[in-house]
Amino acid sequence: MDDALDPSALQAARERLGEAREEALRRWDSVQSRVEDLRRDRAEEPADDEHDPDGPTLSSEWTMAEAQRGVVESAIAEIDAALARVEDGRYGLCLRCGRPISPERLAARPSAATCLDCARRASRSPR
After folding, report:
1. R_g (Cα) of the chain, nearest Å
2. In what helix (H) or strand (E) does residue 26 lie, and over which residues does it extend?
3. Entry pTM
4. pLDDT tens digits, residue range 9-56?
5. Nearest-CA neighbor of 81 among 114, 36, 48?
6. CA 99 to chain CA centroid, nearest Å
7. 82 Cβ neighbours under 8 A, 6+ residues apart
8. How many CB atoms are located within 10 Å of the residue 49 CB?
9. Residue 83: left if φ>0, alpha if ψ -120 to 50, beta else—which one?
10. How far is CA 101 from CA 11, 20, 91, 119, in A?
11. Which is nearest to 97 in space by CA: 121, 73, 74?
12. Residues 38, 60: contact at Cβ < 8 Å?
């Protein structure tokens, strides 16, 4: 049995992934801009912003911005890996068990690298 997606499904996946990558890059630009603003603010503000009652501290905003940047970078890496799988013919096949990933899962998460069963097993296993 051939588990490969047909050419039209692969093209649709390529397009969805491309759109997702463009959106992720826009988010990355936004987060990067925020990080640069915070870097500039940190250079201009006194070192002790922890006692400012007027809102969140620069340190907490910096931490949040860095975390957001990491999430976006991870999403871009997942999308790039999925695009590579499209090109080498492995897209739509679970990287753990080799079975097809359901079309519903791929529609919901085009960068999915595992089938739902393997994803569930991985989320339950201790790290």
Report:
1. 20
2. helix 7-44
3. 0.80
4. 899 999 999 999 999 999 999 999 998 888 887 777 665 555 555 556
5. 114
6. 23
7. 13, 17, 91, 110, 111, 112, 113
8. 17
9. alpha
10. 17, 19, 9, 11
11. 121
12. no
Q: Is the pLDDT of residue 3 over 70?
A: no
Instruction: Measure CA of the first residue to CA of the last residue in the chain; give whole Å.
Output: 35
| pLDDT score at 59 | 79
Amino acid 45: pLDDT: 64
Rounded CA-CA distance 5/23 in Å is 25
Cα dist from 31 to 8, 10, 28, 37, 65, whole Å: 34, 31, 5, 10, 6
- Give the closest residue to 21 by CA, choosing from 68, 81, 67, 63: 81
Maximum distance among all alpha carbons in the chain? 66
With 50 as the cut, is the pLDDT of residue 74 above it? yes
Q: How far apart are CA 90 and CA 83, in angstroms?
A: 10
- The residue type of 86 is V
For residue 22, the one-letter residue type is E
Task: Look at residue 111 and tell me whether its pLDDT is greater than 60.
Answer: yes
